[in-house]
Amino acid sequence: MVDIGQDGELNVCEDLLNSKLKMFKEDVLEGTNRELAGTSLAEYIVSIACSSASILCLVLTLMTYVLFSELRTEAGLNNMFLSSSLLLAQVSLMITSHIFRSSTMCTVLGVVTHFMWLWMFSWSFLCSYHMFQVFTSSTRRTSSLQDLFMAWKKILFSLICPSAIILTTVVGSYLASAGKEIGYGRFSCYLNSTLLVGLTVAGPLSLVTIINVVFFTKAVHKIHSVRKLQSIIKKEEQNIEWHIYVKLSSVTGAFWTVAIVAAALNNNILQ
């Protein structure tokens, strides 16, 4: 089934090669299962509990925006899309984390999970950009038609950016593997390699986080400059100001820096 021809080329039976590849995939999946089985029960319970609590809070947030129309301003719609994308990303991640066998469905879930997280990163950027505009721009849109046009521009932007990254991942992986894979679902229901995770998840996340922190810094500087023009700032008002800063930092996604550090150091506590 394996021999060397007269021209010096190695000839391998296709059935043998396919069977060995199948055995290799099964060994990798078994290793992944053993690794997951070795994860402490307490860590697993805490992870599920925190994810469930986050999903519940996101659902309640969306219900609030749906029930009260006065909240559905431009900023409110941004928050609705951000909450929706984060909700879908967490749900898809919870589903894929409990599927270990490679299949077409696994590959599809991997693509969907990747898209949802990238979609959430896009809306995090858009929320930060809107915050930056509100506090630094000297002009305001007055036409409802302008608001509608801007809303559609944001939606298209939030969809095009993740789609472009995923398309690049699929095409690049397909060409690099000579048509054998598309970058998803080979060993798990996600990206096939750490390199792909770094380039298509950690890379965009780092870029968005840096830009958002810059937006946040400039917005805070603008707020502080305006407040300094006032004659007296009471202590209570200063506390309110700091609360505003904390809320703005959560919108910008500045806390994603912790996730980046955790991934780089492979620190389970930070994760």
How is the topology of this model organized?
Blueprint: E1 2-4, E2 10-12, H1 14-37, H2 41-67, H3 74-96, H4 104-136, H5 144-176, H6 194-228, H7 235-252, H8 256-265
Antiparallel strand pairs: 1-2
Helix pairs in contact: 2-3, 3-4, 4-5, 4-6, 6-7
Domain G-protein coupled receptors family 2 profile: 43-271
Subcellular location: Membrane
GO molecular function: G protein-coupled receptor activity
Gyration radius over CA: 24 Å
Q: What global shape is seen?
A: elongated
- What name goes with the CATH superfamily of the largest domain? Rhodopsin 7-helix transmembrane proteins
Distance between the termini: 48 Å
**Widest beta sheet: strand line-up:** 1-2
Q: What is the CATH topology of the largest domain?
A: Rhopdopsin 7-helix transmembrane proteins
Give the total of beta strands.
2
Strand portion: under 5%
- Percent in helix: over 70%
Corresponding CATH architecture of the largest domain:
Up-down Bundle
Q: Averaged pLDDT, please?
A: 78
Q: Give the class-level CATH name of the largest domain.
A: Mainly Alpha
**Biggest β-sheet strands, sense, barrel:** 2 strands, antiparallel
User: Which H/E pattern describes the elements?
Assistant: EEHHHHHHHH
Tell me the number of helical segments per DSSP (H or I, 4 or more residues long): 8
The helix-and-strand class reads: mainly alpha
**Uncertain ranges:** 28-38
Number of structural units classed as domains: 2
Organism: Biomphalaria glabrata (Bloodfluke planorb)
Protein name: G-protein coupled receptors family 2 profile 2 domain-containing protein
InterPro entries: GPCR_2-like_7TM (IPR017981), GPCR_2_secretin-like (IPR000832), GPCR_LN-TM7 (IPR053231)
GO biological process, one term: cell surface receptor signaling pathway
